[in-house]
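Typical record is below.
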Amino acid sequence: MSKVSVVILNFNGEKLLQQFLPSVVEHTQHASIIVADNGSTDQSIAILQSDFPSVKIIQLDKNYGFCGGYNLALQKINTPYYVLLNSDIEVTPGWLEPIINLLDNQPDIAAVQPKILSFHAKDQFEYAGAGGGFIDALGYPFCRGRIFNYTEKDQGQYNDTREVFWASGACLAIRSDIYHTLGGLDETFFAHMEEIDLCWKIHRMGKKVYYCGESTVFHVGAGTLARTNPRKTYYNFRNGLSLIYKHLPSNQLWYKLPFRIMLDLIAALKFILEGHARDGIAVLKALIDFLKLLKSTHQQRKWIKSRYPFSTQNVFNGLIIVDYYLLGKKVIDVKSPK
């Protein structure tokens, strides 16, 4: 039996399955390929059964979201390694082997992502993960190869293999025992930034997250929600506040959280003044809902703290909004840890 399960979460994605699953089947050796269906009402199941007989199917009774869907599906899979793979990703020959070799040979590595390029512009890094993820001192996420909405051209500058802060949920290889020990993906996030939360917990337990530039995949991106969708804005701002509340030590949280909230309010005003009122309202709703959920988020903070110490290892010490918006930096040099 294979030690790797490549698990694709699907919801009414029959067209994506028809377009991208063939590359996964063709280029994925020595691994089980599983589609976890989140209660689709289209022809996804029929297409899988007729066109992809080698692919296993896990049928869930309804749409549990990205986090809930994966958590339920992975409870039914018993292999040492999982690879969470978006349904809108085209993989390349030999994509899986370098990732699994890292996990096999370095027990302190818990999770790995490949180089993620854009499917529509294959010489360009893709928004969701690019060359490996980081967060800054206020918890704003960015990637090598992508800062905010600016993406770099791939010129081999991130062909390395190195430690990062977070690995993209678009293509995330992770040890199954660690996934379950940490409780999987936080379902209160529903979608967006849940992988950053999981990776921060990995750091807190003393394990590492890696980027593997020897492996390449191409990602369509924004398959669930467009980057300009106010619902995506809502989840990113709400979950961003929850993220730092759960993980920052108290001697940083007391001043960083109010500062972050102030910056989010400025962002809401900026959206409104630029004619994106729905995004501005989404930011305000995100703040209100974060405060409504503060009691349950605090319980999560206590649960994590009781098991794993606070850790800000590999956090970028600068402020990405200053570097990008005030200093005009489009590329940030994040030093590899010694």
